[in-house]
Amino acid sequence: MIRVVDLHKAFGANQVLRGIDLEVEKGTTCVILGGSGSGKTVLMKHVIGLLKPDRGTVFVNDVEMPKLEGLALTEARRMFGMVFQKSALFDSMTVLENVAFPLHEKDRSISGKELRRRVVEKLEVVDLAESILPRYPSELSGGMQKRVALARALIHDPPVVLYDEPTTGLDPITTEYVDDMIVGAKQRLGVTSMVISHDIASSFKVADKLAVLYDGQIAAQGTPEEVRRSQHPHVKKFLSLWFEKQ
User: Fold this and answer.
1) Cβ atoms of 79 and 2 closer than 8 Å
2) How far apart (Å, rounded) are the C-alpha atoms in residues 93 and 152?
3) Edge-to-edge strand order for the sheet containing 63-64?
4) Which domains, from first to last, does the chain contain?
5) Which of 227, 200, 160, 183 has the alpha carbon at shortest distance from 26?
6) Antiparallel, parallel or unpaired: β 29-33 and 209-214
7) 3-state DSSP assignment of residue 235
8) Three-class SS string for 129-183?
9) Model pLDDT for residues 145-185, shown as the tens digit of each residue
10) Distance from the Cα of residue 89 to its chain's centroid
11) I want to staple 73 with a disulfide (CB 3.0 to 4.6 A). Which of 68, 98, 116, 217 is the partner?
């Protein structure tokens, strides 16, 4: 579903990505794990076509993203749903309005009844009840806000969902809810997921595949167990403190 080939990107003298090769199979969850400044967000921006590489390319569902511009790029981005770090819900909108927003913007001819039906359908996927439709984000817990954000990302049935640091700043209980949400979306809808994170515990729970970024390169990739056995010095150091606590 996603194939990154020899990806390079620099901003001035700062070489952020130094030859990234990565494949994410359809229906799996790949976590891009790394510390601050490792290039995780820059990599994701290339996947969705927000940045053009200096060298290399990115294919999503056999579409070469860097070659697209204008309307073609806009259409290609409909392959993605996005869940942001802070949920990015509109404070002045109800749950119904927030989740329906992408559909309403795409096609204003959709009836209110059909919008509501499709919103309720996606809320059920993330284990939320129809009764929360009239509530505002400020009336929801952090975990519920994340679930509403995922429902919004899923509303147009994208084949790929991208998660930007979904557990940053959350308490352990809410983090567990978010982890279960990511796994549940994959199991129920078969979506392909890419998660960028520095949360080691969460990453090992949700990932089918892990890729550890360091200094603009992938220091280790594979199943969680394969990455855990990596002998790369940075990977061993990055993971060691967490595993020592287990």
Assistant:
1) no
2) 13
3) 14-24, 2-11, 55-60, 63-64
4) 26-52+70-245 (3.40.50.300)
5) 160
6) parallel
7) helix
8) CHHHCCCCHHHCCHHHHHHHHHHHHHCCCCCEEEEECCCCCCCHHHHHHHHHHHH
9) 888 998 999 998 899 999 988 888 788 888 888 899 899 88
10) 16
11) 68
Q: Taking a C-beta distance cutoff of 8 angstroms, is the pair 83, 162 a contact? A: yes
DSSP code, position 36: T
Burial of 109 (0-12, 13-18, 19+ CB in 10 A): exposed
Question: Cβ distance 85 to 165 under 8 Å?
Answer: yes
Phi and psi of 163, rounded to 5°? -120, 125
10-16: long-range pairs with CB below 8 Å, 24+: 10/54, 15/216, 16/42, 16/216
Taking only the tens place, the pLDDT of each residue in 90-124 is 999 999 999 999 887 777 778 888 889 999 999 98
Q: In whole angstroms, give the CA distance from residue 87 to residue 100.
A: 15
Q: Which two tokens stand for residue 213?
A: 């970024």
Q: Give the ranges where the chain is alpha helix by DSSP (H).
A: 40-47, 70-76, 95-106, 112-125, 142-154, 172-189, 200-206, 224-228, 233-245
Q: What global pTM score does this model have?
A: 0.88
Separation of alpha carbons 40 and 219, rounded Å? 13
CA atoms within 13 A on the CB side of 220: 20
Distance (Å, whole) CA 182 – CA 193:
8
For residue 24, what are the β-bridge partners?
2
